[in-house]
Model the fold of this input.
Amino acid sequence: MIRPTRAIVDLGAIEANLRAIAASLAAQRTARLAPRVIAVVKANAYGHGSASVGLALERAGAEMLACADIEEGIVLRKAGVQIPILVFGALGISDLDGVFEHHLVPTISTPSAASALAAAAQKHRQPLHCHLKIDTGMNRLGFRHDNLERTLPEIARSPHLRIDAVYTHFATADEPEHPAFAQQRARFEKACETLATLGMRPKWRHAANSATLLRDERVWYDFVRPGLLLYGIAPPPLSSTLALRPALSLHSRIVHVKGMRAGEGTGYGLKTVVDRPSTIAIVPAGYADGLDRRLAGRGFMLVRGRRVPIVGSVCMDMTTIDVTGIDVSTGDEVVIVGEQGDESIGVREIAAAIGTIPYELLCRVGTRIERVYSPEP
Done:
């Protein structure tokens, strides 16, 4: 039996979003070549399904894909992706044979990663093309911007490593008033100058994720790295004039309808107690499917083209909605994310209601939810 809760992924929307981003970059960058696109498909393409999405992005003209680790890269290669695949994550303790077997482009972000990759390249008797990450203030992965003269000379001398690109990551790209953004930009520019003094001259630079892409043309450089924008969502609190379409909608069906008397409660803890006769419906989707427990009392779903509140508690496998006054039946479609009639519920709205970010909600769409692709890949 097929579970009634499923995610519909519009691959056409993802392809159109990529083309809209590329067209906007070209239109705004008239004085010199527009940056190319590294399409970010880490975390199972933000919950959309990396294999199908990766192939769609390749069809739509992405120059390169980016993922979190070697295992994610292998999934893309096994799906048939041919374009370069950049691995963002730390690789110092990874099994690096996969980099060579599946022709992945690793990031050198730590001294241990540099040593391990150089040794692996020597073992495989081939130079390894890499990207170098500079830490300009996020204090996560990357070589410190103010210590490059100490940490990079050995890498610069290595006959086994080819540094094709240098990049950084902004910590406050989605906080327009934060001063750290300008500071990181200046540090990255200086770091690139330092690389030249060490004899390292990467062909490309990149720094702009979705939020940065929307904010500042000065840091588009040679590539941009959209993630959330590809899936049709602008990173809050930023807005976009791009013609984007959300790519994922989440659907289910009512499996039971029942009445409640005044004074009765529903769900664990009986936190929703009704003060009048009410009708509730049970939807077979819960926190095991990625729904957040904080949606109870704050979120909505769509039934018969109307918004209905989530009540009681979001349980592991089911959620209760209040359908009082609506003629509903078992089997009626429920839209958790998406459109129904004239109403819509977007991921940004849901995230704002519970105090989180759209990225988290998309990545949490559960593995037991079937992804249905349109058109079929």
